[in-house]
Specification:
Blueprint: E1 2-5, H1 11-22, E2 47-50, E3 56-68, E4 74-85, H2 94-108, E5 113-117, E6 130-131, E7 134-141, E8 159-164, H3 169-182, H4 191-196, E9 209-214, E10 220-228, E11 233-241, H5 244-255, E12 262-268, H6 274-277, E13 285-291, E14 293-297, H7 300-306, E15 313-321, E16 326-335, E17 338-343, E18 350-353, H8 354-361, H9 367-372, E19 377-378, H10 383-391
Parallel strand pairs: 4-5, 11-12, 15-18
Antiparallel strand pairs: 1-2, 2-3, 3-4, 5-14, 6-14, 7-12, 7-13, 8-9, 9-10, 10-11, 15-16, 16-17, 18-19
Length: 403
């Protein structure tokens, strides 16, 4: 078996191989090749695992994204995708070989962050990825959707307009880009995704209504993409808002829709205030609480100095990367929101796997949680608390982009 890069001419074979790996059949693309999830694949970043007879038996790819880090920094990140091995060649080292080849290639390109969405939680930790953002579904029955009277003064002076998805592509792209630059954990949606209709709604061309919110000055600052099912369930694919006022206005709008029994908000960040805004706190039923974005650090010092920090302090991290056969000890020093990270021979405060560093990197997982779970070793009584203070963020990370 060997690993080789793909070209544009390999697209059909890659799509067929990957669907075989998952036991599915591909959708029919539009005449221009768009309208399907693979329409935005970057074929110069994809790989084939090829058997001795020349037949591809595994695939892996990557997108060129930007990831918003704590502190508002935007950093390049490889979005690993299209990973699969056909059933006849599983458990023969194909996936491991592709993952090792890919990580080496990403480093050679100068990239220091890699992210993915894990189809199975058991697979990717061994390759150094850790769950870093989380999302949940909130269902609100319409008859229990009354909002409580806020103690703060003022009401939303904006407006909501309903558009068809086909009417507002450029506007959605602009609103999403403003949102993702302010939301830690959010990924960019390159223009190619929108023009090719790749991914899931509202990028994909599936029939959807879009409620667009404009503030008092008439500036579009949020949208909710939704569809109404036969059973009276209105499902919101995603609610994108640059501030809480826009989100609240959009939530009120969809909950007031006629001829519905309930509204399902598919992607809500943990700790979101929506449930607290309802008169009946229990009306917002949480389900589907799950991991979403998994993060892998390829260069620990570069990654730690790229993000912003809310608290000054220092921490010695002993980081083990068994998949790449590396181990390093680093002194992380934070002053005035900026970090310095350098190798050190000082005694460690925390010893952890590279996957666990990925989990705490965006601030969505507290280091103390991993200490209590036995995944991270704290060498001093106050080490976990100091790590919590350093890695904590004002706004929890959230990602809802599917790739």
């Amino acid at each position: 078996m060997k690993i080789r890069p793909t070209t544009d001419e390999d697209l059909d074979v890659l799509v067929d191989t990957l669907h075989t790996a998952f036991g599915r059949f591909p959708e029919t693309p539009r005449e221009d090749g768009g309208g399907v999830w693979w329409a935005a694949l970057e074929m110069d970043r994809c790989l084939f695992a090829v058997a001795e007879d020349g037949r591809p038996v595994g695939t892996a790819g990557a997108y060129s994204f930007e990831l918003t880090l704590p502190g508002g920094t935007v950093a390049p990140a490889a979005g690993v995708t299209a990973v699969g091995v056909i059933p006849s060649h599983r458990r023969q080292g194909v996936l491991t070989a592709m993952m090792r080849h890919q990580l080496t290639e990403l480093r050679d390109r100068g990239e220091f962050l890699s992210v993915l969405l894990a189809s199975e939680a058991l697979i990717y930790r061994r390759f150094g990825y850790g769950p870093a953002t989380y999302t949940q579904r909130v269902t609100v029955p319409q008859h229990k959707s009354v909002f409580d009277r806020p103690r703060t003064s003022g009401t939303d002076a904006g407006s909501v307009e309903v558009l068809r998805r086909a009417e507002c592509g450029e506007l959605l792209e602009e609103i999403y880009d403003r949102y993702r630059r302010a939301q830690p954990g959010a990924l960019s949606r390159p223009h190619r995704w929108w023009t090719r209709g790749a991914g899931q709604p509202p990028i994909a061309p599936a029939p959807r209504y879009v409620a667009v919110h404009r503030n008092a000055d008439g500036v579009a600052d949020g949208y909710a993409c939704y569809a109404l099912g036969d059973a009276g369930t209105l499902t919101v694919d995603e609610t994108i808002a640059v501030d809480d006022a826009a989100f609240t206005a959009l939530a009120r709008f969809v909950l007031d829709h006629d001829l519905i029994s309930e509204v399902v908000f598919r992607h809500v960040p943990p700790g979101h205030p929506l449930r607290w805004q309802l008169t009946d706190f229990r009306a917002g039923e949480v389900s589907g609480d799950t991991d979403w974005l998994w993060v892998r650090l390829l260069d620990v010092p570069r990654a730690l100095t790229a993000r912003g920090w809310a608290t000054d302090g220092e921490l010695v991290l002993d980081v083990d990367d068994p998949f790449l056969g590396e181990r390093g000890r680093y002194l992380l020093t934070v002053r005035d929101g900026e970090a310095d990270c350098a190798p050190t021979d000082r005694a460690p405060d925390l010893s952890l796997d590279i996957s666990d560093l990925g989990s705490v990197y965006l601030g969505g997982t507290a280091p103390s949680t991993l200490v209590r779970a036995g995944r991270v070793q704290a060498h001093h009584a106050d080490a976990a608390a100091r790590a919590d203070a350093l890695f904590r963020t004002e706004r929890p990370p959230h990602c809802l982009h599917w790739f």
